[in-house]
């Protein structure tokens, strides 16, 4: 892929999604859902339907899933049984390849520009607080998420994110940016959206970050990468049109240099973004 534009502002903040990016919770959701589908005599997730649901809050409660699954039980019963399965399996979550090393490096990194600003970190995850506690209950995931200060973790049930304004709306990323700026020392220049780099695995999450005016590194699950291969440029611009949010002025342009796709967090190129980890 061609290098990103060089006249973009220096990166001063990095904001991370969690599920399917830092930890393997998406695979655990798939495993739990497949167990229930099998219990009720329905076929397992296809890679295509899974890719469309990944990163969408409460996706297995929605029409897309239920119209496909055609379960012989009411949605409410499926939701109850699904929650029980997740409670059993979420404590088994593990960090994904490259996640801990990347967060460790960024936690001591600085901008390589003359200002030499520290890179500030925040979390913006659609997961709700009770699920977050389960997913981060093992020593490995607890250590991984400890790179984010507690006041810089914005979850799906955070009161500052208006109801019904989850991803692909930009709200959760703008709140995460507020947490970085409210923690800044007085006299310090505020971090602007264009100085933030968002790490996302889902299509909805990329759109949310683009709508927030931020730059994006998209790290899709292999199933998602295959499903959207032909429309990769639309994904990176946030122009998949999966939800009618309006406010199209918030979207990116095709090939505008504000987003790129990499196969895993291990492939992140610090130098490309002017991030110095040598300190």
Automatic annotation (TrEMBL):
Which top-rank group of organisms is this from? Answer: Eukaryota
Q: Which InterPro entries match?
A: HAD-like_sf, HAD-SF_hydro_IA, HAD_2, HAD_sf, PGP-like_dom2
Q: Report the Pfam families cross-referenced here.
A: HAD_2 (PF13419)
Specify the protein name.
HAD-like domain-containing protein
């Amino acid at each position: 892929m061609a290098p990103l534009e060089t006249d973009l502002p220096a990166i001063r903040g990095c904001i991370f999604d969690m599920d399917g990016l830092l930890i393997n919770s998406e695979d655990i959701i798939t495993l739990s859902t497949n167990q229930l589908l099998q219990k009720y005599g329905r076929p397992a997730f296809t890679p295509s339907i899974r890719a469309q649901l990944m990163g969408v809050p409460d996706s297995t409660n929605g029409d897309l899933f239920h119209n496909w699954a055609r379960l012989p039980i009411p949605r409410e019963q499926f939701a109850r049984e699904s929650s029980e399965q997740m409670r059993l399996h979420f404590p088994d979550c593990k960090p994904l390849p490259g996640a801990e090393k990347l967060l460790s490096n960024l936690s001591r990194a600085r901008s390589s520009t003359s200002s030499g600003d520290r890179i500030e970190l925040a979390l913006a995850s659609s997961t709700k607080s009770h699920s977050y506690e389960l997913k981060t209950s093992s020593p490995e995931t607890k250590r991984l998420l400890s790179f984010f200060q507690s006041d810089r973790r914005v979850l799906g049930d955070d009161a500052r994110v208006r109801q019904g304004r989850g991803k692909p709306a930009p709200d959760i990323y703008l709140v995460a940016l507020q947490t970085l700026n409210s923690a800044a020392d007085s006299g310090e220049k505020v971090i602007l959206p264009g100085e933030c780099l968002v790490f996302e695995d889902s299509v909805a999450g990329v759109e949310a970050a683009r709508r927030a005016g931020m730059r994006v590194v998209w790290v899709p699950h292999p199933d998602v990468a295959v499903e959207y291969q032909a429309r990769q440029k639309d994904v990176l611009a946030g122009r998949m049109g999966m939800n009618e949010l309006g406010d199209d002025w918030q979207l990116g342009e095709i090939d505008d240099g504000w987003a790129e796709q990499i196969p895993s967090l291990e492939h992140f190129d610090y130098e490309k973004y002017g991030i110095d980890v040598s300190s």
